[in-house]
Give the backbone structure.
Amino acid sequence: MFLINQDPAPNNIDVRTRKQLDALVRQWMFSTMSKDLMLTVLKSGKTARDLWERLKALIQDNKGTRAATLESKFVNLKFTDCSDIDDYCDKLKAISDRLQDLEFPMDDKRLVIQLINGLPPEYDTVASLISQTMPSFEAAWA
């Protein structure tokens, strides 16, 4: 989209229409972000492109911090923090997926190991069986 990237504007769009489109894109961007984020990027510029560049910089600069926070949540998540085994596995998988989105992928074996490590003592027999066979995360979950 020419309003947020380096592409030239189409020839058939006049300055007034371009300004209207820019205002519409900025409005859409603001409607999809939290109030705190909006207040942070509001100062960054007057055009949709300025806002977009500021958002990109914020997100890219923040990847490592967010990944570290998620990693900590992952290794500290225990079955006892969850309502049942499905909730526990859902949370492990969700954190893993979020790390993947931040370009910090996690392999299936690591998910299985954390699944085992977070189980309480009454699941020792199951944990032992899973660790001996090292099935996929989905199979261990089942």
Notes: The chain has a mean pLDDT of 88. The chain has two domains: 15-61, 63-141. The chain has eight helices and no strands.
